[in-house]
Amino acid sequence: MADDGFDPPAAGGYFDDLPIVLTPSRLPQPLIEAPAAVTVLDRELIRATGYRDLARLFRLVPGMQIGQERGGSNWVTYHGLGNDSPADMQVLIDGRAVYSPSVLGGVDWLALPVTIDEIERIEVVRGTDAVAYGPNAFLGVINIITRSAGSVPGPAASLSAGEEGIRDLRASWDSEPGNHALRLAASTRRDDGYSGLHDDSRMNIFSLRSDSRLSDHDQLTFRIAASDSARQTGYGDSPLNNNGKRTIDNRTASVQGQWRHAPSAEEELLVNYFRNEISTRDEWMASGPRIDLLPTIATSYVQLNRNRDIERNSLEVQHRKTLSPSVQGVWGGEARHERVVAPFIYYGYDDITTRLYRLFGNLEWRFSPDWTTNIGAMAEKYSDDRTRYSPRAFVNWQASPDSTLRIGYSRAWRDRNLLERYGDVRVFDPADGRIIARPYLPNPDLEPPRIDSVEIGWLERFKPGDTRLDVRLFNERIVDFVARRQMPITSDLPVLALPPINMLPTQYYNLQSPVTLRGLEYQIRTKPWTDGRIILNHVMIDRRIDDPFVKARVAPYTASLSWLQSWGGPSSGWSSMITALRMGPLAGGDGFVARYDYQAPAYTAYDFSIRRRLNFGAQDVVVALSGINLGARHQEIADRSEQSLHPEGPVNQVSRMVFLSVSIGER
After folding, report:
1. What is the per-residue pLDDT for 287?
2. In angstroms, what CA-CA distances link 559 with 455, 553, 660?
3. What is the pLDDT of residues 83-115, one digit of tens each?
4. Among 95, 100, 21, CA closest to 417
5. What is the mean pLDDT of residues 588-606?
6. Residue 366 class from Cβ within 10 Å (0-12 exposed, 13-18 middle, 19+ buried)?
7. Do residues 364 and 393 touch, judged by C-beta distance below 8 A?
8. Do residues 486 and 595 make contact, with C-beta atoms less than 8 angstroms apart?
């Protein structure tokens, strides 16, 4: 392979980029030849943060916008725009999609059946990648890659305790490497969440991974994982108790089998099958606290729920082949079947079944030593929708050994989630059976949003401080963007009126005007002194959006500044990481009652982790003191319906969390 102009990382170093990325095109490529902007969070950087939450890591990625309405709820998007549960980024664990197709879609980050200790690296594609991963890669891809079984043999354990009731325990065991290797991992996590909120949470995870070498050319990977979580949510004074205090119970289970056949280094056939099951119980009682306004419900207590059971089966095949010394390609297809049972959310449906079929391909051609082009396309057919096509074309020019320019165009479509098309929630008075509320109306004719993205990228290495610069200029234009609106009052659409808000029926619809995001994002990594690194991420976005409620979902700027330092040389075992996070004003989603105009103010937060590695014979012990949300208390994302009751100030400020961790056998 030609020199990519970037040195490979030193063994065990967590400041350097991986030389090869796999996610953007499904081809193994040097970063400078990839048809996308990519950020790699490797194992050592993940450890250095000290974070308990997987989602919090993405605050260190340029362009990502992250927020928490409470401790057990994460809002993760690229360039904002997401609804209450953003579903515009594809999230994968070892090639298995983990977003939920029911209700609002998105990813339940707390319930993901993977522990941080299992993760080898995370590749984040910043920008549209539907050509490679389908309609949910509308704005990008988060690809979580776990360690192979047998890669770090022996047992390991970690214990954490600290403020807000933090008490975590993780344990794993890895077999010796060989033709048949096995890894077991389990964890339990508990905390009291943010003070002043109904916010306790607990989560248990178990996973098993086996890697078997069947022959010189065949490998079989098998993974099963399960999680069991319970978290408190809701507010005691929500209107009519429509978002009342309750506990959400969630159980997930997945099984995945992957066969890899590589007859030579130039060719590989990959077959991947997985099945996900998600069962969520989210139910509570609504009531009528204002008797003078709502006499028909004054003595009624109505059972509400967001209960759902989800099944997903997916079979994917891909074939990669080097066609000549300058050309390599990958092509394949996927068939996916999903079934959702949520009768309260989808009135009149016992269940909803959807099917997705897609074909994809990408061709990389190095037509001169300094020029590489990537051409890709995808065709997809989603249930009753017409077949849609997504193209991509990029050209990369290595202007010098230390400088690369990238320019390209891509198009993608996003599937409408089931709530947007079929959500029909009807609340009946148990006394007489009549409808007293209908907060969601279906819109089966909703069009899928389409994005056309143009970007210019620049990668540069400067010798002073071994400084790396990654710049992305982007123009992302979305037509038929899906938003939520209140519907006019008619005789068959009941309205519950409770000052200061009216609980009007709502419906998802397509915006008539385009949504355009233009801007600049960059990352600078530099080593200004011995054993120290500075990492700066920054994005500025020009939001050209006519609808003010949609515009408020995009923070106009975000930034993070991290300082990583090893102290006293390698033998001392001391290291630290300090991060300052700056987020512009951000609204998040709609909440239970839509169209309340509110943005959480801009804020700055500080995180830190100080580690000491100690040697006791053949055993390593790592002691770490970590903290998040230091500095002034702030609000990150508001529940708009709850915030409407409290114009005097934020209702859900985050809490500082400082905790101590002890790890044995960390490798």
Report:
1. 73
2. 20, 17, 27
3. 878 888 999 999 899 887 666 678 888 888 888
4. 100
5. 81
6. middle
7. no
8. yes
Tell me the C-alpha distance between 457 and 532, whole Å.
Answer: 27
The helix (run of H) or strand (run of E) holding residue 421 is helix 418-422
Q: In this structure, what DSSP letter does residue 432 have?
A: T
Asked whether 92 and 98 are in contact (CB, 8 A), the reply is yes
Helix (H) or strand (E) holding 45: helix 43-49
Output the six-digit token pair for 93: 């664990």
Q: Which of 518, 512, 443, 516 has its CA nearest to residue 480?
A: 512
Cβ neighbours for 451, distance < 8 A, ≥ 6 positions apart: 128, 138, 139, 411, 412, 413, 414, 476, 477, 478
Nearest-angstrom CA–CA distance, 83 and 81? 7
Confidence of residue 551 (pLDDT cuts 50, 70, 90): very high
Distance CA 655, CA 71 (A): 8
The identity of residue 586, as a single letter, is L
Tokens of 174: 């890895």
Element (H, E) at 76: strand 73-78
> Which residue reads 């979305």 in tokens?
478
Average pLDDT of 625-654? 91
Cβ 5 vs Cβ 402: under 8 Å? yes
251 - beta bridge partners?
228, 279
Q: How many other C-beta atoms can be found within 10 angstroms of the C-beta atom of residue 664?
A: 15
Query: Hey, where are the domains in the chain?
Result: 21-664
Structure tokens at 8: 């490979």
Instruction: Give how far the C-alpha of residue 357 lies from the chain's centroid of Cα atoms, to the nearest Å.
Output: 23
Residue with tokens 């290797």, as numbered in its chain: 181
What superfamily would CATH give domain 21-664?
TonB-dependent receptor, beta-barrel domain (2.40.170.20)
Q: In the prediction, which pLDDT does 349 show?
A: 93
